[in-house]
Amino acid sequence: MSHNIPAMSNATTSDETHAQEIAATTPAQKRALSYSTTIETLFNQVMSTNMPADRIIGQYFREHKKHGSKDRRVIRESLFGLFRWWGWLNQLNSNQKHTTWFQQLSTCAMLEQHEWNDVATAWNDFASWPQTRPDQVELINNASLNDKLTAFMTVSGIDTCQLTQLLPQWFWQLCPIDGVDQYAVVNAMSSRPPIWARAQTLSTEKVIKSLGQAGIEAKANSYFSDAINLGHKSINLNEVNVYKQGYLEIQDLASQVIGQICQPNNHDKWWDACSGAGGKTLQLYSLMLQQGSALTGSIIASDIRTKPLEELRKRAKRAGFDNISVAPWKGDVLPVDANAFDGVLVDAPCSCTGTWRRNPDMRWLDDASAVTDKPMLQLAILRRSAVAVKSGGKLVYATCSLSPSENEQIVKDFLSETAEFELEPVTHPFTGQLCDMLTIWPQQANSDGMFVAKMRRK
Prior knowledge:
By secondary structure, the protein is of the alpha/beta class. Helix content is 42%, strand content 13%.
């Protein structure tokens, strides 16, 4: 895949250059200089390698144990903030490379409304602002996106900045927003979503109580009885009992919609054709168990990658889910029996534009080919997987993309080729509307974006 990577606007990666050009005299300035060098190295590494930012920063923290929790927070949130606002920040430009970088850092701290004022002030000092400094611009608590745009234009002196620049131009071409508030989409994409989780084999109330005893603030959700909002703080799950015991799984709320649309019965046989590490496989099984009577159903999970399937095995074992087995895809041959399943879920590989809130770096690492490369593969997988659905069975197609070419168009093309399947209308869980196919927008329930369509074999 080819990528158009925006160069890091005149920023430098040399620690020595910074040290020579910047006079850091106070302890706060020295800390701020150290942070900036680390953040800059990580930013450039993401941009030059096309590796996801969360993977690069995870590897960095594993190799540098010296950082305490505050250091990690400043580095992590500043790095992700830079990607979140990069559509604006890359317009900042001064005559000196390091000056531009500090302007970008301090403006990011203002837009994100970060709490580390001593560090942001030091970045301001290093930035040699030719116009208003960010610490002279007052943003109210949880300022609106329009207020942030005004603040950015005041600080930067740029008078032609647009809200839509926070997402790449190709997004607007390939993800046309018809009947959806454009401002609301950009606003959601410019904020961090909460961590969503799901209770399984234990009541939501008991899971929330156990989390509270561990000092983790968790809230139930009005949409799904097993959905739990864990807020925005980083959590080390390996220290959380309900997670270690298999009573809690991390799964975004939009992703949870898919299992709810599948509505598996506890005697059903399901195939998760593109399972990955099995988040939706586990959800399907958990929904089967919730029906009270003895479970006689089963699920087979498939993927072309063996590592995620190993992870699924571990997760299923942790939860005590016995009737889940795996069948890896090997080439084009169907890894399961034809005409054998009450339900088949095809959560197809996609551009992942719906997950950009959680992974803001991806909007600058990918180009239009992230979308345009996928439809042929998606349709081929849907065609192949449909063979496994028995008469009267369900076929559910899903992606975490917001592009119609990966979503509605795939379903329409598939249905135009076969008379064996028909579309079943579904109810939007967050708006209550009945629709032929369902797109979850990130702003509708503070989640990722997701698409799902439900068909039935005649």
